Amino acid sequence: MTSEVITSEPRLVRSVQETQSEMTELILPNDTNVLGNLLGGRLMHFIDLVGAMAAYRHSRSNVVTASMDHIDFISPVHVGDLLILKSSTNRAFRTSMEVGVKVWVENAVKGTVRHVASAYLTFVALDRVGRRIVVPELKPATSEEMRRFQDAGRRREIREQEQKRRRSNQSE
Ligand SMILES: CC(C)(COP(=O)(O)OP(=O)(O)OC[C@H]1O[C@@H](n2cnc3c(N)ncnc32)[C@H](O)[C@@H]1OP(=O)(O)O)[C@@H](O)C(=O)NCCC(=O)NCCS
To answer: Where in the sequence is the domain holding 62, given as residue range(s)?
Structure first.
């Protein structure tokens, strides 16, 4: 169990925009399997990195990945493609934040862009000695941001129920 820093200071408030992050990667042979398709694990690594950027911008502290909820690999990415990853914080809880990541691929020759993956990750903010710290609140401004905020709350409930179920199975 990680300890938490107790503070009486009022929580800062951040906008979704302040957390938005973007990363572009050129897919090289080392990133791919024998068919020249991007490896799933490599894609998850990029998703983790761009997700951490949004959590870092939200908390302005060290962050660790607590979970990656769900990831759909919609279509393959090939060597030579440009991978575009965008992330933003969907909701801040107490010491954790849910971040959404969406990934597109740009065919550099044709200039076409297609959606290839989406994922939700939870990051926990830690201080320099590894204690959990309370993160700023997130204030959704648009109807889309509000929808993501509410969906993140529902996903947290599902995660918690699933965690309880797993723990009770393990103790049997
Ligand atoms: C993530 C971690 C800091 C949580 O610490 P803990 O003491 O088990 O946490 P608690 O159960 O007290 O929960 C603390 C917060 O983390 C959240 N959390 C814990 N486990 C979680 C999970 N699996 N998924 C989502 N959120 C989680 C809790 O909801 C809580 O959030 P809140 O403060 O916003 O309400 C700890 O498990 C850890 O250090 N894990 C390893 C992280 C890591 O190395 N990541 C890289 C993996 S390769």
So the answer is: 13-171
